[in-house]
Amino acid sequence: MQIVIITGMSGAGKSSGINIFEDMGYYSMDNVPPQLISNFVQLTENSKLPFEKLVVGVDIRGGIFFDDLEVAVVQLKQEGHQVIILFLDANDEVLVRRFKELRRPHPLGGSGDMMTEIKEERRRLKRIQDRADITIDTSALNLGKLREAICTYFQNLKDTDFFVRIISFGFKNGILLDGDLIFDVRFIPNPYYIESLREMNGLDQTIEDYVFQFEQTNTAMNKIVDLVTYLLPMYKKEGKRGLTIGIGCTGGKHRSVSFAHVMYQKLRDLGIQSVLFHRDEEGWENHGQ
Q1: Which domain range does residue 209 map to?
Q2: pLDDT tens digits for 178-193?
Q3: Distance between CA 128 and CA 139 in Å, rounded?
Q4: CA 202 from chain center: how many Å?
């Protein structure tokens, strides 16, 4: 059975994430104490209609002891299940805004200061975040984009896959919080300042040709691809299931989109399982090998 444990910061979209997994055919259960996850899995296995895919929501509401969660994950893996921990995050300012928009108190409410409560939750979740297989920053994602991110990743995921996740973004909209490696491509001349190119985006061949006409673009691409291929075996050895690479430019429309797209193609040509997202450009390009 493939078991996704979805957790993360309150307000980062866990409930929406569970609904997305349900739409993908996962059986779901929310707010499960970690010590009961194995029992729940056994119940589904013994049911008349056993499930092949299960998503379990775990969060701070139940006063979680994450030592119990780690024990549960080890046990499930020993039983032969594929277990993936998905951590949803967002920056503190976005979390405060979401709680205020919904007029809901924070689950750790009591201090009277929501920012203090968010920082305390982040402290408590640090250990499980470090152990997560996949982290998704939802700060700049609406429900549709969150759905595309989850579907693209998990619909292409096989038992032994290690994924490289390439995300283009614009620094003006906030740095990519869930990136393992962040590369700033603002050293490339900006097509935005050429009137005939301004309204295009990085997926237009004209923009890609412009971006890659410069020697520094191609040199940087080759060096970054070499670095990534060098690091991948070490990330795998440490037990990571995936690597998230952020490619940032000013607005996330031209340079970062083209650079990320070409990097994705190069990694695929090398046989590296990859997915590609454009965070800040409408009409995401989603790929899975």
Answers
A1: 163-288
A2: 889 999 999 999 999 9
A3: 20
A4: 22
